[in-house]
Amino acid sequence: MKRLGKYTFTFESAPAILSGAGSVGKAEGEGPLAHEFDFINENDGVGASTWEKAEASLVRQAVTLAIDKARLTPAEIDVAFAGDLLNQCTASTFGFRELQIPLAGLFGACSTFALALFMAALFVDGGYAKHALAEASSHFCSAEKQFRMPLEYGGQRPQTAQRTVTGAGACIVGAKGTGPRIVRGCVGRITDMDVSDPANMGAAMAPAAAATIGEYLLDTKTVPEDYDLILTGDLGSVGAALMRDLLRSDYGCDPGAVHNDCGLMVFDAKKQDVHAGGSGCGCSAAVFSTKILRELSNGTLSRVLFAGTGALMSPLTTLQGESIPCICHAVELAGGERRL
Amino acid sequence: MKRLGKYTFTFESAPAILSGAGSVGKAEGEGPLAHEFDFINENDGVGASTWEKAEASLVRQAVTLAIDKARLTPAEIDVAFAGDLLNQCTASTFGFRELQIPLAGLFGACSTFALALFMAALFVDGGYAKHALAEASSHFCSAEKQFRMPLEYGGQRPQTAQRTVTGAGACIVGAKGTGPRIVRGCVGRITDMDVSDPANMGAAMAPAAAATIGEYLLDTKTVPEDYDLILTGDLGSVGAALMRDLLRSDYGCDPGAVHNDCGLMVFDAKKQDVHAGGSGCGCSAAVFSTKILRELSNGTLSRVLFAGTGALMSPLTTLQGESIPCICHAVELAGGERRL
Questions:
Q1: Within a domain: residue B4?
Q2: pLDDT value of residue B268
């Protein structure tokens, strides 16, 4: 069995991430990671007639650029894993519509990119694919319209709320070639600690993040200090603090110095009106596929645990009085050519 | 590479389906497969306060029974693949909420169960899981409410429309043990032939089914007559006829005598008011996990190609004038202990 401990899958061949690309919107292009992204769309409409079609355009931008960067063609991608937040995951479907790539649709809310990367690594490691693609997207305007209020209402949101990132990120994982390695991973279990406020999803997701990271550390017999970075995506400021508290109380470890969160990295909370930070499938997808991948490639980072978190509610389940079930999927990355 | 031809994945260890269970609603329990299902809920409310919670209850029924039948506990399931039609796939999330099983959410509309079975087989074949679970669900009332009209409107639907099955199906795939074998599979590509009528999804999905089945036959150098059954799920009467036409014209083969469709099997079209037949993720999930699995086990069937089809639109994409992108994922089954 290619397993370690209770929940950890091992990828003995350590598949390489051959390339990555991130395409984002205007606000993300005004944030601290502006210089990292491949595409910054000056207008969040991305030349499309609706927000949903704009999100599908972001998907196409990220996917085609990631394939180009790996010097491949769509026909050389054996399988793609993709997902988004829209009802029936239509940003992914319409983004991939013309590409003729075998497509396995995923749903994991904001954990989707980590799950997609896990799947791509497993298919390559198992010898089922030479090249696998992982992608995820979100769009501030399509998400606000679907999950909260039409933008035109100008609704006020509490400080615990996060801003959905307009962006898509894609990575190509390959059996041969150079690049950061995916060495292990973990599929999360649903955790529901009875948080029911959809304007505070960081608090809802924190226990899922703590459970996955805590069990991963136990399975791998590692401590936070073994990593250069434990990267969550996307807990925001409220959820990140709660997650660190839970790891201390439940698992007796403190990721303090090595922990960061994609939702805290993508915007400048002091200058940009983003409340608790960024969120959405596209947040960790775009941040991971650009900045993190670059730092793993150039040696700035050599060991990273990337844990994507998702709040698996819908507006309807909230109206029906349900709490918010959450999940966290994780992959461990090794910089450059390092293998386990 | 564990591959054959252009699109076919091979599972050399031929993982076994250790058990299956199907739980359905009242109309399905009055149809020709009534004697096949494990649970027939006399009331489609399944004792829950909303249709969505009822669907989550169907998920729990099918999952827990499939685990019981395999003489396992939830803690022995290494990974589950599940999905449904509800926005943000909440039937799966809430159905699995208390089970503490690592859960990878899938989205493939009505193709979800075939994709889940493919994933479960690959994880077991690759040595990543001892036991993997595949599950999918749908509910007539939650689907009508979300995709079409509230039931109370009593809206008329055209004869090309299909009736969403109220049901869930689950299978346990294992590395050891007896049962029908999953020997190969295929992840589909999006096919969109510009059909835009959401009341005729059979026509929209037929080209995707023909493309996946046609390429699968080419990859494996087989002809329809090599199979006891080529089972689509769920094209209904309109889509099934179109799919056979397309296989004849595009691939020069005729699956006539060996083709059947879960949507045509689950209801009695003459006696039940179901128009073009059944549909929904739960249709092929419940039919496959009961009748088909039983016939593969007892030798009635020895070689089956199961091709799940999905229409990947949302009500919003239809309102925005988009055609319906479709997909078809396939797995090949071998009866009893037979291996390739």
A1: no
A2: 96
Between A and B, how many CB-CB pairs are < 8 A? 168
The answer on B185 and B319 residing in a single domain is yes
A211-233 pLDDT per residue, tens = 999 999 999 999 999 999 999 99
**Among B174, B200, B224, where does a domain finish?**
B174
* Token code pair at residue B69: 């039948």
Report residue B171: phi and psi, to 5°. -130, 145
Measured CA to CA in angstroms, residue B85 lies from A1, A229, B109, B142, B307 at distances of: 33, 37, 6, 9, 18
- Domain range for A309: 181-334
Minimum CA–CA partner of B112 in chain A: A105
Q: Would you state the structure tokens that stand for residue B99, as one six-digit string?
A: 């089970």
Q: In angstroms, what separates the C-alpha of A119 from chain B's closest C-alpha?
A: 9
State whether A148 and A294 are in the same domain. Answer: no
pLDDT lower than 50: segments of chain A: 338-340
Examine the predicted complex and report whether its ipTM is higher than 0.95. yes
Minimum Cα–Cα distance from A110: chain B residue: B88
CB-based contact A89 B312, cutoff 8 Å:
yes
Chain-chain contact of B312 with A90 (C-beta, under 8 angstroms): yes
Torsional sign, CA B288, B294, B295, B299: positive
Nearest of B200, B102, B284 to residue A115 by alpha carbon: B102
Q: Residue B2 domain-assigned? A: no
B169 and B230 both lie in a single domain: no
Is residue A301 a contact partner of residue A292, using CB atoms and an 8 Å limit? Answer: yes
Q: Which amino acid is at A167?
A: G
In this model, does residue B155 exceed pLDDT 90? no
**Phi, psi (degrees; rounded to nearest 5) at A107:** -130, 125
